[in-house]
């Protein structure tokens, strides 16, 4: 984890932002608005993430909450089609659960007047899965405009899927991006894919407008086939992809009439996000190294 420590230093992040640029819209709200506008023009919606995680001070968590206030206001003023995604550890979950819930509720209230008031809670490492779902359920009792993320690589996820179906909560399903131990998570890709497809089918058939987050064409094709076989309309779910990853696939899905939402991170605290993108795919590491050499 020494590499992560290095890239998390603010001096590194200031000097090397160009490395992360492919995956991050920019450092400011204005750049985030531009990125959303460009995607809206191509028929896609978005979800904006103000970068940051693992905050351990109340002041920093409040700064993150305030950054979301600024963000949801800007979305309204620019009239762009996007909602927001938050990480609870950036909202103070590691400080105190009630404090993170209060910050989350404040963001939900601030986003309420927006065209798309939805607030997505990203799922982080397994150390905070239970707390994240607890906070989600408390917020959901107050507002239906909030939804969790479930990770197909976790063995617990089919149970969580059933619970979210019962609650009528809107779920984003992804494979999972953290390095989890084998007793709680599947480690091999064929098993993770099978787990993903099973959860996706349950959510498609019985869930509430799932967001199916993946760039894996095998999974996308399995979802397309299942939806066609069951006669599920294209307004019953959306595909979600990450900013800068497989833009040609994003465009193909729009051309085929699917709803597509792109997850757009922005801000100066890009290290953790960038680290996950680079370590999960060797193409991304090669891309980052090439950017370094080309300067
Ligand atoms: C919208 C969205 C939100 C997410 N939210 C969360 C979250 O809250 N919590 C969490 O743990 N994880 C989250 N993730 C990350 C997710 O868990 C995976 O780590 C990530 O999406 C990679 O898995 P994949 O399904 O895209 O498949 P992969 O196996 O990574 O990719 C499938 C195929 O896509 C192609 N591909 C992928 N990336 C590239 C690339 N950069 N360049 C070229 N080809 C590429 C390759 O051909 C690859 O074989 C999110 C992902 C998305 C798309």
Notable traits:
295 residues, alpha/beta, eight-stranded parallel β-barrel, 13 helices, globular, binds flavin-adenine dinucleotide
Explain what you see.
- There is one protein chain.
- By secondary structure, the chain is of the alpha/beta class.
- It has helices spanning 2-8, 10-15, 17-20, 29-41, 58-78, 97-111, 129-142, 157-167, 189-206, 217-229, 247-255, 271-280, 282-293, and strands at 45-50, 82-86, 119-121, 146-151, 172-174, 211-213, 238-242, 260-266.
- The protein contains 13 helices and 8 strands.
- The longest helix has 21 residues, at 58-78.
- The radius of gyration is 18 Å and the shape is globular.
- The model has no long low-confidence stretch (mean pLDDT 92).
- The site of flavin-adenine dinucleotide (FAD) has 23 residues, from strand 4, strand 7 and helix 13.
How is this structure best summarized?
The chain has 295 residues and is an alpha/beta fold.
Topology:
Layout (H helix, E strand, L loop, with lengths): L1 H7 L1 H6 L1 H4 L8 H13 L3 E6 L7 H21 L3 E5 L10 H15 L7 E3 L7 H14 L3 E6 L5 H11 L4 E3 L14 H18 L4 E3 L3 H13 L8 E5 L4 H9 L4 E7 L4 H10 L1 H12 L2
Parallel strand pairs: 1-2, 1-8, 2-3, 3-4, 4-5, 5-6, 6-7, 7-8
């Amino acid at each position: 984890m020494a590499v992560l420590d290095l890239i998390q230093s603010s001096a590194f992040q200031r000097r090397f932002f160009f490395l992360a640029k492919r995956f991050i819209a920019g450092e400011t709200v204005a750049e985030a608005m531009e990125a959303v506008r460009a995607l809206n023009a191509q028929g896609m919606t978005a979800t904006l993430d103000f970068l940051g995680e693992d905050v351990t001070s109340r002041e920093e968590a409040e700064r993150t909450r305030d950054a979301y206030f600024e963000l949801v206001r800007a979305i309204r003023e620019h009239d762009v089609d996007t909602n927001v995604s938050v990480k609870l550890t950036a909202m103070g979950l590691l400080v105190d659960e009630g404090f993170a819930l209060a910050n989350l509720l404040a963001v939900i209230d601030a986003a309420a007047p927006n065209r798309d008031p939805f607030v997505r809670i990203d799922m982080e490492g397994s150390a905070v899965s239970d707390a994240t779902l607890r906070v989600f359920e408390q917020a959901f009792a107050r507002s239906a405009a909030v939804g969790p993320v479930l990770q197909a690589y976790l063995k617990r996820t089919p149970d969580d899927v059933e619970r979210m179906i019962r609650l009528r909560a809107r779920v984003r399903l992804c494979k999972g991006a953290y390095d989890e131990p084998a007793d709680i998570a599947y480690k091999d890709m064929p098993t993770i894919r099978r787990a993903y497809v099973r959860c996706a089918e349950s959510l498609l058939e019985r869930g509430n407008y799932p967001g199916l987050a993946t760039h894996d064409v095998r999974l996308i094709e399995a979802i397309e086939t299942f939806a066609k076989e069951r006669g599920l309309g294209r307004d019953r779910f959306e595909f979600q992809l990450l900013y800068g990853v497989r833009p040609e696939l994003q465009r193909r899905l729009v051309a085929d009439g699917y709803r597509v939402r792109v997850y757009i991170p922005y801000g100066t605290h890009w290290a953790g996000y960038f680290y996950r993108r680079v370590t999960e795919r060797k193409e991304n590491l090669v891309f980052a190294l090439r950017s370094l050499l080309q300067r």
